[in-house]
Amino acid sequence: MKNFISILGSNSDYSTNRLLLQFIQKHFKDQANIEIFEIKNLPAFNKPEDRKAPHEVQELADKIREADGVIISSPEYNHSVPAALKSTLEWLSYTNQALIDKPVMLTGASYGKLGSSRAQSHLRQMLDAPELKARIMPSSEFLIGYSLQAFDDNGNLTDQRKIEALERIFNDFVHFVDITNQLVNANESHQKQAPSYSWEAK
Amino acid sequence: MKLVGIVGSNAEFSYNRLLLNFIAKNFKKLIDVEVLDIKDVPMFNQSDDQTNSEVIQNLNKKIVEADGVIIATPEYNHSIPSALQSVLEWLSFKIHPLDGKPVMIVGASYDVQGSSRSQLHLRQVLDAPGVNAVVMPGNEFLLGEVYDAFDENENLKDAQTAQFLETCIKKFIRFINVVNVLQSPEGMKDLSDAEDLYATGAIDTTVEGIDMSADDWLEQAAEATQAVEGNTYVKLNRGLLTVNQLNYFLNSMPAELTYADSNNQFLYYNHHMEKEDMLAGRRPEQVGSPLAECHPERVFSSVSWVIQQLRSGKQDVVRTQVPTHGPDKFVVHSYQAVRDDNGNYLGINEYVQDIQPVIDWYLEQTGQQLTGGDVDAVSGATSKVDTVSGATAKA
Ligand SMILES: Cc1cc2nc3c(=O)[nH]c(=O)nc-3n(C[C@H](O)[C@H](O)[C@H](O)COP(=O)(O)O)c2cc1C
Ligand SMILES: Cc1cc2nc3c(=O)[nH]c(=O)nc-3n(C[C@H](O)[C@H](O)[C@H](O)COP(=O)(O)O)c2cc1C
Q: Which of B22, B86, B113, B209 could form a disulfide with A83 if both were Cys (CB 3.0 to 4.6 A apart)?
């Protein structure tokens, strides 16, 4: 049994990405405990001089550290990642850098036909930045387009092919988590010596 | 040329703010830049619409009024900062001030790459259908290793960098002009010359021999024509009023009225307020001036287009809404053709009104409500998104 934390990339009261994460939580409950973390209560990022995380951010960081892996589900706003999720990642990168070396799987839902594909590619680039440096699972795009119509009244995905695709990716992720954590642990001695990256430590 | 510069950082101390201040200071002769901060803009939330807050309305107004926008973005985690992203979300949700606006991107960051990646993301965001800005291609101005870029007087240390920035700014000025022509109502054509906006000709009623631009044109012209005033009676169709009565009557109209004749000379407005208090400001000294002197050059093409519509009879009235007065007003400029009994074009009656009180009154009297708020806006964004996505759809 794996322990995952999932980050809901939308701060909207009604969110189709929340529906998606709830579906994942339910559908894979035999393989993993998945907690859904809401970012709507986090303060907006504004570079604090002391580099200290507010307690809501620290709470998220602790959960990330304890989890075997992280699932992020993002909508698409203006072809990119919503400000609320960007802000969450800025907090993590600027304070405790909890995402470094964490196995991450991405999903996304949006109202348009492309289902957040552009947001996801931005998100991958962001997670690759040196202060975040997550281990993102490659070749695993999972998108829900027309997300308002994608779920039935019980919150289940209606498209059977989507469910199968999700199962494949989720199974991959369970293995990816093991492999990645092995890799990271093998490198741990080396990790300890290398101080974590900071843009502003010039 | 009036530009706004948006500081893409919400940090207390920001190199991107320095960069915009430098641009404003150094290129004063070329452009007039007002630098705007985004520190106080709240985090975007689809379920908590704050479009009508003062900060967002202020940004909206400044952007709508500007000829172009310069955005200075830092790079945060290889993208644009959430603070800037949030602003662009507000400005693409219920309002769209950047739609069709010429935008130039600059950026400063710590890395040697100096915001190259965030600039690319910003281009893609500005290109999204809800934003729909017109971003100047090429001319990528990146300021890397920014902690070392400014001297103690907040000037760019490197002369070559400052020189390149100037080249970019000059290109942006030309870019703005090209975009304006592109977006003038008749497409590619610049219509500025279709009308004699300098009123160089004369019609029967033109008072000749007096400098149209003179501050006291009215006094001089009144003397030359021995115009009547005060309690002298004037016979009208149909009625009899003194000039005073006529003035008070026109001043009591629920609109700002302006008369420009068919020679494109501004002859009259119902002056009873100071410029600052008017919806469309006019000054007493402007009376008599050619229309060219009453408008900035960038709108000449649009002004000419409106006059052409009326003069040719294609339209009797052209209306535009001017969204810069805030959410509690709905200001409409109507350009109504003035014609004689035979239908000949005599000039324009421009009347400017805030019709919001009338709408409110109507709703109150009939007990009706306006609908079409939340749902539309988002699905509106979505349907626009669809049109675009078709082109780039993945298999
Ligand atoms: C400011 C704004 C911009 C948007 N831009 C896009 C877009 O570029 N592409 C897209 O597919 N949907 C876009 N949408 C619609 C979102 O997909 C939709 O609002 C929703 O947030 C999807 O995620 P959620 O249901 O989990 O909140 C946009 C919505 C907003 C409010
Ligand atoms: C959360 C965060 C992420 C950052 N990521 C990057 C980055 O990806 N690339 C970079 O060159 N600088 C990065 N920086 C450093 C910025 O370039 C630096 O803070 C810069 O001063 C920001 O511009 P400003 O001074 O206008 O706020 C980052 C800073 C923060 C706070």
A: B86
Closest CA to A63 of A3, A22, A8: A3
What residues have CB less than 8 Å from B193, skipping those under 6 apart? B304
User: Locate tokens 């859904």: which residue?
Assistant: A36
Where are the domain boundaries for CATH 3.30.450.20 in chain B?
193-392
The number of folded domains in chain A is 1
In eight-state DSSP terms, residue B76 is B
For residue B179, the SS3 value is helix
**Right CATH number for B2-183 from 1.20.58.760, 3.90.1010.10, 3.20.20.60, 3.40.50.360?**
3.40.50.360
Which pLDDT value is given to residue B370? 83
Residue B124: nearest ligand to its CA? 1
3-state SS class at B201: coil
> Nearest residue CA, atom 20 of ligand 1?
A110
Please report whether residue A202 resides in a domain.
Answer: no
| CA–CA dist B318, B350 (Å, integer) | 10
Smallest Cβ distance to B385: which of A85, A86, A112? A112
Question: Has residue A120 been placed in a domain?
Answer: yes
- In chain B, which residues have their Cβ closer than 8 Å to the Cβ of A81? 79, 85
| Structural domain contains residue A201 | no
What global pTM score does this model have? 0.75
Within a 10 A sphere around the Cβ of A29, how many other Cβ atoms?
Answer: 11
Pick the residue whose CA is nearest to atom 29 on ligand 2: B76
Least confident of B103-107, B139-143, B199-203: B139-143
